[in-house]
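User: Teach me something about this protein's shape.
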Amino acid sequence: MERPTSSSRPGGSPTAAWCRISLVTTVTLLTNRLHVTDANPSSFPFFSFPAEYAGLPLIPPYLQPGARRWRHGANFASAGAGALAETFRGSVIDLKTQLSHFKEAENQLRKELGEAKAELTISRGVYMFSIGSNDYMSPFLTNSTILSSYSRSKYAGMVMGNLTTVIKEIYGIGGRKFGFMNLPPLGCLPGMRIIKAEQRGRCLEEASSLAKLHNHALSKLLAKLEHQLTGFKYSLYDFNGNLRHRMNHPRRYGFKAGKVACCGTGRYRGVYSCGGKRIVKEFELCESPGEHLFWDSFHLTERAYEQLAHQMWNGDGIHSSSNLHSLKFFFEGL
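Assistant: First, the predicted structure itself:
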């Protein structure tokens, strides 16, 4: 899948050190890539706004030819990927492979800067994660039978297990500041509402319940790591709650439509046909995208992303067990 349209928001002056790492499932933080292969509403341009707020340029993907200078950060994202290697296998770079790319960059950084300066740079880094949506959505979008092989809690445990391993490895290398967002109500996205026609547009609760299970486990995990790992700090943005509020009360946030997408076809414009380049060619396009919360079947409009990113940056809507850190706090003084 590809996102048909977007707009990049380049930031201002650069900062002094390579200290922003993006280990995420989508082309998000610090990237100017406009086309993604993703069905995740936390995708670009959500993290482009915090990059702008931090005064950073948008950083190209790690694997882009010639993109091997990391003064402002590195982006290891792969659109559509998940924590599990099985998620959209063959079309994406899974989280553990992204970690191996990070280690390559770390080794190169140590060669270029020397051990002492590299250690300082790595410890000052802000490590951003947006992971999990594709793991829970792909079984419904691909007619996979994997959910019949595991209990819901076992499957969520597999996702969380892989995420935990990656977090601990980055911490072991020297990372200390981590940014997370929980998962949205997946079953209520326009493209998920239409999967089961007999539900007549109601939310696909099987998907939303998986997201809820994941979010509970994520909150517990981060609180546990905060107590176990010396110096571990994190920001956890309640993407689920803040998006749900806008879906149910769009006019409070300046939108007219909280459930119907701007571009697509069918009920809720949930058929992923925007742009006319997929199996279904027909699509409708609204006149004012800024009046819609959703751009297409799975992605938000830029206005919606900006509202949510502003909250995440400033610490509004932050969900955390004890120390409430905003992204802005992590970038101050760098």
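Now, about its shape. DSSP finds ten helices and seven strands in the chain. The two ends are 37 Å apart (CA to CA). If you'd like, I can walk through any region in more detail.
User: That's plenty for now, thanks!
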